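Study the following:
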Amino acid sequence: MTFDVSPDAYGRFMGRYAEPLAKVFTSFAAVGAGDKVLDVGCGPGALTAHLASVGAEVTAIDPSPRFIDAMRARFPDIDVRRGTAEELPYPAATFDAALAQLVVHFMVDAAAGIRQMARVTRPGGVVATCVWDGPTGALAPFWDAVHVLDPAAQDEALLSGARRGHLTELFAAAGLRNVDEQAIAVDVVHPTFDEWWEPYTFGVGPAGDYLARLDDAGRARLQTVARERLGDGPFTVSATAWAARAAV
């Protein structure tokens, strides 16, 4: 699995869902103007952009050098650093809130990453995360088509946080209590099938890796099955994520 892709490729693949999700997630986390917020695993900046738009004082971190370069060019006035959730390079109690959107499922040690988010958040501040639900998340239509042809294919439903209650378990393992976990959702309209399909060919994440491992005939079969299920467009993908928050 790789996220060593251009920010534009990632944006076309996931940004179309991450940008509207950022609005819902920020509201869920109850952060806003004047809050000092850390965006953990910022990627190309979907959440950072929305946090800045509501007046939060944002700091961002991500392990990808290409994303960091893009973030620094996009947000020259924001402190953007390269690093991982498990080893956050900030003093304790630095932020009013630490948020991780669509990141927990790719942390090497999710409980350790959330524990670090809590460490750098002040007492009474908020730690919040969200992760796509396995069966009904943004990538579910792709994996549904995969399973028509390859029922045993491992999708993203087993990733950390991708089922009800797992984020709460991870928060508890990180030492956080009184966790509020809820389903949040966005609807994204795709004008054509090709607009939906093409970003899967960019090799982003588990879905991109799966598609890249197929031969030309296999990719053509999968594309045909997906088109039969979704139609030529327009169509709407209703994507559900699990979100969790807790006070430090």
